[in-house]
Specification:
Rossmann fold; 7-stranded mixed sheet; alpha/beta; binds adenosine-5'-triphosphate; about 550 residues; 3 domains; binds magnesium ion; Ribosomal Protein L25, Chain P
Length: about 550
Amino acid sequence: MSSEMLPVTDFIREIIDKDIKNNRYGGRVATRFPPEPNGYLHIGHAKSVCLNFGIAMQYRGTCNLRLDDTDPAGESMEYVESIINDVHWLGFDWEDRLYYASNYFEKLYEFAVRLIKKGKAYVCDLSTDEIKEYRGTLTSPGKESPYRNRSVEENLDLFARMRAGEFEDGSRVLRAKIDMSSPNITMRDPVIYRIKREPHYRTGKTWVIYPMYDFAHCLSDAIEHITHSICTLEFENNRPLYDWIVNELIEEGDRPRQIEFARLNLSYTILSKRRLIELVEKGYVTGWDDPRMPTIAGMRRRGYTPEAIRTFCNRIGVAKKDNLVDIALLEACVRDDLNEHAPRVMAVLKPLKLVIDNYPDGKVEEIECANHPQNPAMGTRKVPLSKILYIEQDDFHEYPPKKYKRLAPGRKVRLRNAYVIKFADMVRDDKTGKILEVHCTYEPESKDSLKSDKRNVEGVIHWVSAEHAIPAEVRLYDRLFQVPDPAGMDDDFSKYLNPKSLEILTLCFVEPCLQKAAQGSRYQFERLGYFCVDLKDSSPLKPVFNRIVSLRDTWAKGASHS
Ligand code: ATP
Ligand code: MG
């Protein structure tokens, strides 16, 4: 078990500890992660994945992956495949326990029949609006349906005919017979089955009735012998119904218990599937795996590591009250992980030609560079240096502002890992005044004094050899939203999108060693940030790099958003 998976404790684990002590499930711990395949998983789901699988690992129990696919609307195989892929990528394994709630349709139907036989469920002919009206409010009790006292025989007959497709969509429902005057509205004879003629991506047209979430979920848990059914806070009011159903239908000792925790909300981010779908469908992003999306697929393509995401999920912990987590914390986890593991290379994003006048024409030196200055075990590589280099436009300034620690007329800087150079001249475009090239001279003996002598240089700048560098495209990604709480704003979230969330630079140059860099591999571009080879668009002919994160939190107070 790696460090980020070390056991922590929280109120959920305390409940489990108590259950184990009281031998409630014979000491067994069985959890599940139950996504509905109607969208891609996002960082909020990752929190639930880490929690459920993490608990199973810690208690030597099991965690199932269950596709909670009881509502045909919007569900698809594409989503199932993405979920399977993403949970694996996050580092978790359900072994042979991949389940589908839709596999339980027959069993769930039988459970409903048993409820009817116990006199605890009835077919109701009220319309949706009438059911709502009869339900009452928080301050007034509900009214009993005129169909509430149908005989068991009549209910069995009607329910069978609902299944057989004899009735129109919406004309009848099956309801649990609980208590129309319960202070908890969820308990006022909730609907547990409805008629819906919509083909299901797995069962096709076999079924025209579908169980409601509250009925299907707890019984799916029971079928799988789940002990602790962990879900988010919005289900707190549904817990009495969860308990009612399992108490009616499941043997004592096999009854799972529901525990709620606060869902993850992340600043500058939207985590509602409905809205994420909208972002994709309206083309605000290029797809579910757009590197700006808070989806696992997007974060993977952005270059986030599964380790960093797990560390983040463990650091935020679980609480019983909703809050908003600062996205800077996630970015810091990503940065820490990359700082430790990403090899350093040099890349120039906005090139400016630099000629070393006194460097011999045609000479090429292989400069040995450390792949990680703090970790010699990561080895070294050779980087070619020659007379003509590219440096960053930002690293030269004709009229340097105060505190500018780079190249300028009259100044010396060190080329990273190599020589000290001194400004000599510059070439300007007569029409625009733009600087086209900078000329310098180098101090041939300065390379050997890399560590010892500072040689009065203003600073250190990175570079690539013009003749040897590989042209590349670099995509500078930034936060998708420019307000801290886009989810809490009005519905038209498009006006809160960050117009600078993507800047594409097509004329960049990277070190030759990156020509063959594998898709998905991650690097620190020295002085610039962390970058990864794009999983989709990059090829050796045209390498494409995504910025994962900047070197520092550029959104912190006072820093500029660049
Ligand atoms: P929907 O609104 O479509 O139900 P959902 O985000 O709840 O969307 P599910 O597929 O039902 O999606 O979620 C699967 C599991 O992930 C559930 O157990 C849910 O509680 C959990 N989950 C979803 N969003 C978050 C979140 N932001 N933080 C923590 N857990 C979450
Ligand atoms: Mg849900």
